[in-house]
Amino acid sequence: MTFNELNLIEPILRALGEEGYTTPTPIQQQAIPQVLEGHDLLGVAQTGTGKTAAFSVPILQILHQTAQAQKGGQGPRGRIRCLVLTPTRELAIQIGESFKAYGRHLPQLRTTVIFGGVGQNPQVQALQRGIEILVATPGRLLDLMNQGYVNLQHIEVFVLDEADRMLDMGFIHDIKRILPKLPAGRQSLFFSATMPNVIKELSATILRPNPVQVAVTPVSSTADTVTQSVFLVDKNDKPALLRHVLKDPAIKRVLVFTRTKHGANKVTETLEKAQITAEAIHGNKSQNHRQRALSNFKAGTTRVLVATDIAARGIDVDELTHVINYEVPNEPETYVHRIGRTGRAGAFGTAFTFVEDEERAYLQDIQKLIRKQLDVDKDHPYTTTSVAPVSLTGNERIIRPKGPAGRPPREGRSGGGSGQGRSGAPRHAGSQGAGGRSEHRGGSGRPAAAGSGGGERRSGGRPSQGGRGGSEGGRRPQ
Fold first, then answer.
1. Is the domain of 243 the same as that of 198?
2. How far is CA 138 from CA 87, 89, 177, in A?
3. Do both 179 and 239 map to the same domain?
4. 422-439: buried (b, 16+ CB within 10 Å) or exposed (e) per residue?
5. Are 96 and 112 in contact (CB under 8 A)?
6. Is 203 within a domain?
7. Range of the domain at 255
8. What are phi and psi of 329, to 5 degrees?
9. pLDDT (tens digit, 9 = 90+) per residue, 137-164?
10. Cα–Cα distance for residue pair 409/89, rounded to 1 Å
11. pTM of the model
């Protein structure tokens, strides 16, 4: 099937051709015709499946055609007719770029992106000039709504993207405050990489009864185009192993994952000392730094981008040859999301995972989820017998660490003395308050949002103020 077979109008087909796209992905094949017919849609799809184009392309066509039918082809100008809510800055920027790329030959449809962590004045000015498509993160949207800059009464199509990440980042209360402001007769599209019960319940409050459902690339699968291997290594040897692996000139552009912001900074410092160009991207970095780091990485001037899971959500970089799990994620689904950054669009990629002894339980969970035994790479100088391999078919009961492996106890968990959390754990500088929340949530192990130093974490459902809010951003037909 080609895009020509999806009943798309010529201006959009021309834009897709200019972007080099001829063949729709499975979710695009399923979703585009249904959205064009006006159905509400529930999509289960992870990043990298092409879901951004699956909703942006038909939305552009719908808005164009309804405008053509009104007022001699002009339609109402300057009203916000489509709202896309997304959890992070990077995703918001990527989605905004997609709307502009696919709608480049539809100049009457203007798009702007609003998110926190930056000054609001340029965003307010864009809104005041008039736009038809608004891509927003929840916190900044609520801020500008409360200030009277955003009117949602004319919304024709509403998209909630990355609903599961919205839940992880604490945005559900904000979404519930936004929903009553939308017209009841709108068309709604709901996307999530996973579908736990709480997300199903949320979708039922947004979508009309019996929405069309599409599902592709379940989270339990990894792409065949990605070669995966495990390096068993002592914890203290991980920095040296990373430097050793990066001696390979074939690793031209690599995304390295850590679980925490502090870990990302530490890895970056280690690589810089070894004369390896690297930058960190996480919630405590300013928006300007994050955008600059992404631009440098895309341009190839930075070879290594070190990221936390939340900051990396939405990063889409062409020719990303390798992903390295410097720390094993404590949720197996996160592993699938991480390595899905490489091996896209038919290209081949490589994923390395460094596993220390306390992370073996996480590796066991990953192998069970993807139903695959990951090969152990012993061809390196830091291989060790102190970390035993993990068998997919074995019945070994691996004791899970009480806290995220390789990390000191979180505040409020243990210890004693003054200047401590409720349970006596020492407080670390920057671990509380504005700009300092850790990017994980204790106990459940779920990643949470960054603090206001760069994230748009919601606390108690209150909108962030002024220049705060948002979380972050990166771009394809996605």
1. no
2. 7, 10, 10
3. no
4. eeebbeeebbeeebbbbb
5. yes
6. yes
7. 226-376
8. -65, 145
9. 999 999 999 999 999 999 999 999 999 8
10. 30
11. 0.59
Domain boundary among 161, 181, 215: 215
Residue 381, token pair as written in the block:
């100088």
Please check whether residue 95 is in contact with residue 112, taking contact to mean a CB–CB distance below 8 angstroms. no
Mark whether 193 and 137 lie in a shared domain.
Answer: yes
Q: Which amino acid is at 223?
A: A
Chain segment 305-356, per-residue pLDDT in tens = 999 876 666 566 777 889 999 999 888 878 888 888 887 766 788 999 999 9
* 215, 235, 259 - which closes a domain: 215
Cα distance from N-terminal residue to C-terminal residue, the chain:
17
Backbone phi and psi for residue 304, each to the nearest 5 degrees, phi listed first? -120, 125
pLDDT of residue 400: 75
Tokens of 372: 């695959």
Residue 121 shares a structural domain with residue 244: no
How would you classify the pairing of strands 187-192 and 41-44? parallel
* Better-scored residue on pLDDT, 78 or 434: 78
Q: Where are any strands of DSSP class E within 206-253?
A: 212-215, 226-232
Count other C-beta atoms under 10 Å from residue 72's C-beta: 7
Tokens of 80: 């916000």
Within 10 angstroms of residue 466's Cβ, the number of other Cβ atoms is 11
